[in-house]
Design brief:
Length: 128
Amino acid sequence: MTPQQYLDLAERFVGAIQSGDTDTVRACYHPDAKLWHNTDNIEQTVDQNMKVLGWFINNLPDRNYRVLRREALSDGFLQQHVLEATLPDGSLFKMSACVVVRVENGVITRLDEYLDSAEASVLRKFGR
């Protein structure tokens, strides 16, 4: 893939997460993709990740991914962003994150997500 194709995939993927388009999100993943988060050091399957996304869609309906940096890599892309949303109690939420994404044959095969653990811990009181 070309660098622009990696960036186009990143745009489609993040845009689908932001809009709650779970069919497009799933289509961006290889069925056997692995997703890892620094906050729990556990690899998730696509199905497990889609459950988390469902929670986000239901509980943070106005989420916005403010992209600070997005770059094509030789085998995928890197993105640094801030997730901004309103929590179920009405308070504002911000979480800094960075993802390193590996792509093969046009689909995501691995996503490593580095979250600010202090910011992410706010979600625990809402069941995530």
